[in-house]
Design a protein that fits this description.
mainly beta; 7-stranded antiparallel beta sheet
Length: 108
């Protein structure tokens, strides 16, 4: 399954970038994220809850920073294991930031 999206946020690129590394803020931008913990600056562990139709599942995940081009691109990849159903997932996430006028950021 592939998810794609883009949106604008009223915050400067540097502030958005900093939120990626803030364990308290990361759940706000990672859909379904319930908890997160960084292990240094290259690995992150956490828990995400996702729903498809009537199926709701919770996964523990381990991601590694594949590529980091501060402050415009972050590539994370890794895997997750189901906590509520017997299932495994592979995750490959690329987030790109572009500055907009008025101290805003376009996120893809």
């Amino acid at each position: 399954m592939e998810f794609r999206g883009e949106f604008d946020i009223k915050a400067p690129v540097q502030r958005v970038w900093a939120s990626f590394w803030d364990e308290a803020l990361m759940p706000a931008w990672l859909p379904g994220c319930k908890a997160v913990q960084w292990d240094g600056d290259r690995r992150v562990h956490g828990e995400v809850e996702q729903s498809v139709a009537q199926l709701k599942a919770t996964f523990g995940f381990d991601l590694e920073v594949v590529d980091k081009q501060e402050p415009v691109r972050l590539h994370l990849a890794g895997s997750g294991q189901g906590k509520t159903i017997s299932s495994d997932v592979r995750l490959d996430m690329i987030v790109e930031l572009a500055p907009l006028e008025g101290a805003a950021t376009h996120i893809t």
